[in-house]
Amino acid sequence: MTYVIGVSSGAFTVTGREEKMQLIGFFKKAQSAITKGVQFVQLDLESLAEFKEPDLKKHLERIKEMGIRFGVHSETAAFGIEMAEPDSAIEVDYKHCHQRLLEILEESRNVGAEYVLIHSSESVPFALLGRHLQPAILVDVWGRPLREFIEKADDDWVVKWILPEDLRSGGAFIWTDILHGSSLEDYFKYRLEAYKRTEEYRRERERGKTDEEISRELNEYLRRSLKEEFLGFVASRTHTYGPERYAYYIIAKWMEREDDPLWNNIIEANIKFYAKYEGKTPEEWLAEKRIEKVDGKWSIDDPNFREEYKLWVPAVSAKYIWGHFNQERCPGGKPLFRDLKEKLKVKREDGTESVMPVVLESPMAHRGTEEWLRLPNPLQMYYLVKDVNEKAGFKAMGLAFDLEHMISIRVDPETVIELFPEGAGETIKVVHAGWPAPLAPAHLPIQLGSEQQFYLYKVYYKMRQKGFGKTDTAYIIFERGGPETFQESILSLRQIVKFLEKDTPPDKLPPEFSGIATGAIASEERQLAIISEHAEDPLKGLIAIPEEEYTMLGRAATAKPGGGEKWTKEELR
């Protein structure tokens, strides 16, 4: 199809004071693209209030009349926004995030955005939840109370899993935190020993009950008690450390039992990615981690598998996001929320329809937590996008590749592309282009003829071989830094697009790609012409010679602070 080169508007809250007037609201942000040599701008949303700017729709219509089109980069913690994440299992976060996304999609569609981009997950990393206070009221992937999910489970499997016959198996590990470090098995033993010291136990024995009978009755009582305690806990607003983990464990087991494609595909992709990244085969990597399938499945019951958060947490994270886009699949046919897909279809004046997709981008991370993000890798997101689109029957979602983000969170872009299935590149709707820096956010310019320009081309070429930009319009957005970063970056991207569309392999790029061909901006002919044009320019004010030694009028030179003294000392001769 075609590649559209654009720029990001930048954010009012993080830009320098001299530029703030150019970015104060959506209209000004859209207007800023006019002088950048492009016809597309990604508007950086910093507040829902920006949609309430007076006469916004009329102003943006004027921008579109000038040939400027736009997409929306939705809210992100990177802009300093306090956000609820779409992969959260906390009731208040799930509800708030869903309602806010509905409004953002509705408003973006109304003003004519061509896509809405969101970061996949900026939630507290799963491995760090144990040190973060959260309300214990939890929900399932559709936003229903987790208590309802547990109580309506077929054959009461959730309760049987978290309170198994063998107290050392299944989901018994969940109780370690709840019981303040004690295992479920130790808890039952402690309660039995404590009961044996009571007067009631003595009377039961006198009535002729055996220890085995007493133990069995006590176990049954404890199971009923713990079940009610757990059901009450996950429906309470009690603040405790990291209760969201319990929802993730239960949903993980559910996905495992259901043979969910997101569970299987994402875990398999993760194993291949980490093995390749570390220079091992998948078999070698798994053997090193001592991970094996349980009854033919990747199981959360396996402690070695469970401890490798980066294998399975992305699958659960993706399933929670999936739930926001599949409300009609909520069991019982009574979803709590309107489905996000409702906001993605756009009716044109001629009666036809188009789609404004939601595009997922890898997030940034705090230093030291790069590998713990819940859904960081486009390879993981691809399977989410594929599943949502297949069930929706249209391209409701897409991917965004930001090499700077990916490199900064230790997700190697070339490994990702190599592991993409054939044709998977068609899901890539947006590329955030910029110097591929490991320290994000850098947003540095792409210099013409630089190693960075060549690296971007090499990766984009690999993406194109997997389908990127071959069937649908793809947007290549230079994410701006300062005002000085635009011009050469746009020239570099034009060269990239020119040769991408020709399917030129990276090792066959001509000198023209770097701007050094005849007539190009960096060509020898052009540089020599510039030198020749300025060879006889006036030298007034450029040369300072002291009159003491050369008997020429050089008063301006000696009048400078310290000038005469420096010439006398021959420091400037």
Protein architecture, described:
The protein has 573 residues and is of the alpha/beta class. It contains 23 helices and 12 strands. Strands 1-2-3-4-9-10-11-12 form an 8-stranded parallel β-barrel. A two-stranded antiparallel sheet has the order 5-6. The chain has a two-stranded antiparallel sheet with strand order 7-8. A hairpin with a 5-residue loop joins strand 7 and strand 8. Helix 10 crosses helix 14 (309-324). The radius of gyration is 31 Å and the shape is elongated. The model has no long low-confidence stretch (mean pLDDT 87).
What's the helix and strand layout?
Layout: E1 3-8, H1 26-31, E2 40-44, H2 56-65, E3 69-73, H3 91-111, E4 116-119, E5 133-135, H4 146-151, H5 157-162, H6 175-178, H7 184-195, H8 199-206, H9 211-233, E6 239-241, H10 244-257, H11 261-277, H12 282-289, H13 303-307, H14 309-324, E7 345-347, E8 353-355, E9 358-361, H15 378-392, E10 397-402, H16 403-408, H17 413-419, E11 428-433, H18 451-465, E12 474-478, H19 486-500, H20 524-533, H21 547-550, H22 555-559, H23 563-568
Parallel strand pairs: 1-2, 1-12, 2-3, 3-4, 4-9, 9-10, 10-11, 11-12
Antiparallel strand pairs: 5-6, 7-8
Helix pairs in contact: 10-14, 11-12, 11-14, 11-15, 14-15, 18-19
Overall 3D shape: elongated
> Mind summarizing the main beta sheet?
8 strands, parallel, barrel
Instruction: Tell me the number of strands.
Output: 12
Radius of gyration based on Cα positions: 31 Å
Class inferred from helices and paired strands: alpha/beta
Name of the CATH superfamily of the largest domain: Divalent-metal-dependent TIM barrel enzymes
Total number of distinct structural domains: 3
Note the gap between the termini.
63 Å
